[in-house]
Amino acid sequence: MEFINLKAQYTAYKDEIDGAVQRVCANAAFIMGGEVADLESSLAKYTGAAHAISCSSGTDALVLALMALGIGCGDEVITSPFTFIATAEAIALVGATTVFADIDLSDCNIYAALIERAITPKTKAIMPVSLYGQCADMDTINAIAARHNLAVIEDGCQSFGALYRGKKSGNVSTIGTTSFFPSKPLGCYGDGGAIFTSDNELAARLAMLRNHGQSARYEHKVVGINGRLDAIQAAILNVKLRHFDAELSRRAELRTRYDRLLAKGGVTVVGEGAKSVTAQYSVRVKHRDRVAALLNAKGVPTAVHYPKPLHLQEAFAALGYARGDFPLSEQAADEVLSLPFSPFLTEAEQDTVANALDEAIKEAAC
Q1: What's the confidence (pLDDT) of residue 273?
Q2: Please, is 328 exposed, middle or buried when counting C-beta atoms within 10 Å of its C-beta (0-12, 13-18, 19+)?
Q3: Alpha carbon 104 to chain centroid distance?
Q4: Going by C-beta distance under 8 Å and a sequence separation of 6 or more, which residues neighbour residue 118?
Q5: Reduced to 3 states, what is the DSSP secondary structure of residue 313?
Q6: Which of 58, 62, 165, 176 is most open to solvent, judged by the fewest CB atoms within 10 Å of its CB?
Q7: pTM for this model (two decimals)
Q8: β-strand 76-79 against 97-100: which pairing, if any?
Q9: What is the pLDDT of residues 92-115, one digit of tens each?
Q10: For the purposes of burial, counting CB atoms within 10 Å of the CB of 347, is it exposed (0-12), middle (13-18) or buried (19 or more)?
Q11: What's the pLDDT score for residue 39?
C-alpha cells in the first residue's frame, strides 16, 4: 500500500504528462517561457487573485513574500509552532524573529484568539498556516491585522484548492503562498511553489525578487534570489491542474468515508464555511508511536505531521521557549498520526487501514 499513490496518478495522466515534458525538451525553453506564463495565468484564475507568481518551492514562496513586504532584522512575525519548519525557517532567513501563538485543537491551526496578545511594537506580519489542507480563521486574523496595521501572509503550502467563505486559499489575505512539492494536493515532480496577491505593486516586486531582482535583462532594481520555477515542472502542473477539481471531489469522498469508518474520525473538524483539500488525513491517538509501529507491521504506512513543535526544535532554541509554553501544540505533536490518503486510494485499502487502526489502538492500550 502506498502512503500517497503518486505512481497511480502518473499512470492515469501518463500520456499527457509525457507529451508536455517532451514539448519543453523539444523547444529547449527550460527557464521561464510559455509553460510558466500559462501556469501563472491559470493559477491566478483558479484562486481569483489578480496575480500568481510561480517560484522554486513553497519555502521560497514564504521567503519571497517576506522580502516583498520589506520584513527583516528587528521585525517580528507571529505564526504557529505546529507546522513544518519551513514556516519559521523563512522568517529566520530574512533576519526577522518568530513569535509563536498556540493552536486550536479542533483544526490544528493557529488559535486566532491568542494572536493579539503576542503583538508587540516590532510585529510586522501574521503568518497563519493552513494546516492539513484547511484555512485558519482568516476573518478574525485579517481583522486583527487591520487593527494593528499588519500584513497577513497565508502559508497555504498544504491547502491549494481549499475554500474559506467562498474564497480560495491563496486569495484570503495580503499575500498567499503554496507549495507544489510532489506529495501536495497539487504537486509537481520536484520542488515548486507560487505566491498570490491582488496588489499590483507587490506582484511586480515579487516577480523581480524571484529572478535576481531583475526588472529587465541585466537591470537589477533590488537584491533578489534565484527562485524561478523551471518549465518542465510548470508543464507537469499545467497537466495536473486540468484534473485537479476531479481529484478534489474524490478527496472529499474519501475523507467522508474515512470519517464514517473511523469511530473518532479525523483530527481536524472542517470549519463553517470552509472546504478542506485534506492534504493529510490525520487522527489523534494515545500511544501514537506504538500504534504506528503496529500499523506498519500490518503493511499500513503512516507518517507523523509533526512529531516535535517548532518551539522545541534546537534550531529555534535562541527564541527562549520551553516545554509547556504551547501545550496544545505539544499535545498534537504527541498524538497526531497521518494515514494513507490520496485521490487514488481504493475503498478496499481504506477498509484495510480502518480495521488495522482499530486493532492497533486496542492492542497499544493493553
Answers
A1: 74
A2: middle
A3: 17
A4: 78, 99, 100, 101
A5: coil
A6: 165
A7: 0.96
A8: parallel
A9: 999 999 999 999 998 999 999 999
A10: exposed
A11: 98
